[in-house]
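Marked as duplicate of an earlier ticket. Keeping the data here for the record.
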Amino acid sequence: MVIRKRGLLWDWTNSSGPGNPGVPWAMDAVNFKGPMESVSNWNTWVPPELKGRAPYRPMVHLEPQLQGQEWQNVINSKGDIVHFFNEPERNGISPEKAQQDWANQMLSLRRQHGKKLVSPSCSNDQNGQNWINKWLSLVQEKPDFLGLHYYGTKSGDAIAFIQHMHQQHPNLKIIVSEIASISRNKHEVYQFTFEVANWMDKTDYIFEYSFFGAMRKMPDNFVSPQAVLMKPDGHFTQLMRYLMNDQPMHFHKAKKDGKDIVDSDTEE
């Protein structure tokens, strides 16, 4: 039986818009009959090319999304899970201000519209941990899910971090809304991805997780170039194909000069 916990992080520039032709055709290459369960684009609007093939998870990315058309998009979304704030600790939003926004606005999505709510997703550094722990101590009505981000090089460290956060907040299922390896070694990137994905698939308190990210151009050099899921031309990398299709994930060994090598990225 397929375990459907994987989310697709779909960059907004993949969708066509004014001055941006996008690569909407790439969505047709996503296998939504495997482990992929949902789609998010860090925005409140549904990618038109999704065409109802998977649940969409809108995100109140920061405070501007709490008003106007963006807020109406969230209210009107057919998706039943809404993400709240993306790394607020790095965007000048205090736990106290986020608690006010939660009480004054976000909770209405659950009370009046039946939405399930994800906590703010903070980075895995100490500042991020302090922020989310403080926020959770302030809110009277807790979220339905604890949102987490993780970037690092060792799968064991990633698993230990998620386990630690679960031990601190054992009553909340976890959505790892962003995760990726930052190692520059391709074998290490694949090993990180495979081991963490396989562990999350079999861990009952992990509700969903998304590897970063299906985008043609990364915003910076933080995430490893070996971990990208989309090429500049919009075609998927081998790692993306594994995430779409493999469960459990494992190396498909190829040979070169009699030695095992990590899969090439020549096929589309």
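See parent ticket for discussion. The chain is about 30% helix and 20% strand.
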